[in-house]
Design goal:
The protein has about 120 residues and is mainly alpha-helical. The chain has helices spanning about 5-20, 45-55, 60-70, 75-80, 85-95, 100-110, 115-124, and strands spanning about 30-35, 40-45. The longest helix is centred in the N-terminal third of the chain and has 18 residues, at about 5-20. It is extended, with a radius of gyration of 19 Å.
């Protein structure tokens, strides 16, 4: 791989990280809808509008406290459950940072299906 190609690849990876963290809107966003005949309809969305809607849909502070309450866990217990430091959980609950990736999904599941999480924890 030549130097120019390598630099383009590095730049693309950095850009993808910025999009993932919500620092930069994606260049293209598509909504896929399965049609009754089995085909898929693809509609392009406005990336800036998509990014602002995505941020507005999930209020980390409220969701984290709600998930922790649903599981009847203290902050230290919930941090241990997520595999994070209590300091990170404090940052999330205070709104200075936002969870991403698997932690965010697990928090959403814990809030919406606390009984399922409790069953898993009981068998672990």
């Amino acid at each position: 791989m030549n130097k120019k190609t390598f630099e383009e690849l590095k730049s693309s990876i950095r850009e993808a990280g910025a999009v993932r963290r919500g620092e930069k809107p994606p260049t293209r966003v598509w909504r896929l809808t399965k049609q009754p005949d089995g085909s898929v309809k693809r509609v392009q969305l406005d990336p800036l509008k998509y990014q602002s809607e995505k941020k507005a849909k999930w209020d980390a502070q409220t969701e984290i406290v709600a998930a922790r309450s649903a599981l009847s866990m203290s902050q230290s217990q919930f941090a241990g459950f997520l595999g994070i430091s209590i300091r990170t959980l404090h940052h999330w609950e205070q709104g200075s940072r936002r969870p991403t990736g698997a932690a965010r999904v697990l928090i959403q599941v814990a809030q919406k299906e606390p009984k399922a999480i409790k069953r898993v924890l009981a068998t672990a």
